[in-house]
Amino acid sequence: MTSVLQAQGLGRKYGKRWALRECTIDIPAGHVVGLVGPNGAGKTTLLKLACGQLEPTAGGITVLGGRPGSTPAQLARVGFVAQDTPVYAGLSVAEHLRLGARLNPRWDDARARERIARLGLSPTHRAGKLSGGQRAQLALTLGLAKRPELLILDEPVASLDPLARREFLQHLMEATVEHEFGVVLSSHLVSDLERVCDFLIVLVDSRVQVAGEVDQLLATHHRLTGPRRDPDRLPADQHVVSARHTDRQSTFVIRTDAPIHDPAWTVTQLSLEDLVLAYMDKRTEENRRVALEVQR
User: Fold this and answer.
1) pLDDT for residue 164
2) What residue ranges define each of the domains in the chain, with the CATH number in brackets?
3) What is the mean pLDDT of the chain?
């Protein structure tokens, strides 16, 4: 199966600070990809590298088999909706569509006008007078009418209320089914991703922590609860993602492909949010340990 995005050792530095480093991922075609992580994790940097707005400091990246932003034809294949759902406050809805038609060679004017009508947006209304949800839908319309093979969305619903978020994501999913394009959607709201994504990338502290199909990740991650035990005593095929201990009890989140036979453990499955938080907790715990070592 072909890949929509491949990165090998990808890194981007701002001055002396790495915003993204050692990023190696391979996203197969045919997925709605959730990119999740806390604020400042490097999500926006990765997405800007993918759409050609930034150049790598280290490593390389290809999108749809080409270098991002390298040619007008390559640019036309990728749609991008930035974090602040950018629209021009002084332009009307109709003027946005005319601008989109001038800038995009694959522009589908019928699709754009049909969406605007379905959303109930008046073509004469200026974007600055629209609600946050309406502006987000207008930005999505511009991205969809470009007829991209890959649509990249950076925190498109972060500022919306729950009803507007649900409506935006529902429209996005309807469009992916109808027009069959790939999606990479970043968010720190795991509940949103849980509804729409079938491939997950967890990015924390500028590094990819885990990536893969959601069903496979959930099938291979488990929570173990039982008598206190040192992580080193677990079988070698049980990779410890996170660990919590009390005086008498240990709770581990592990990744393994093998069955778990130890009767001492109570084994429970994880939700997608549990999985994401486990990897975020792992990085937090490592940072605490490094800070303590520095203090010593």
Assistant:
1) 85
2) 3-204 (3.40.50.300), 220-295 (no CATH)
3) 90
Question: Which residues in the chain land under pLDDT 50?
Answer: 288-296
| Residue-by-residue DSSP string for the chain | --EEEEEEEEEEEETTEEEEEEEEEEEESS-EEEEE--TTSSHHHHHHHHTTSS--SEEEEEETTB-TTSSHHHHHTEEEE-TT----TTSBHHHHHHHHHHH-TT--HHHHHHHHHHHT--TTSBGGGS-HHHHHHHHHHHHHHT--SEEEEESTTTTS-HHHHHHHHHHHHHHHHHH--EEEEEES-HHHHHHH-SEEEEEETTEEEEEEEHHHHHHHEEEEEEE---GGGS-TT-EEEEEEE-SSEEEEEEE-SS----TT-EEEE--HHHHHHHHHHHHHHHHHHHHHHHH-
- What is the pLDDT, as a whole number, of residue 290? 41
**Amino acid 283: pLDDT:** 56
- CA distances to 4, 56, 113, 122, 226 from 95, rounded to whole Å, are 32, 35, 12, 12, 63
pLDDT at 295: 43
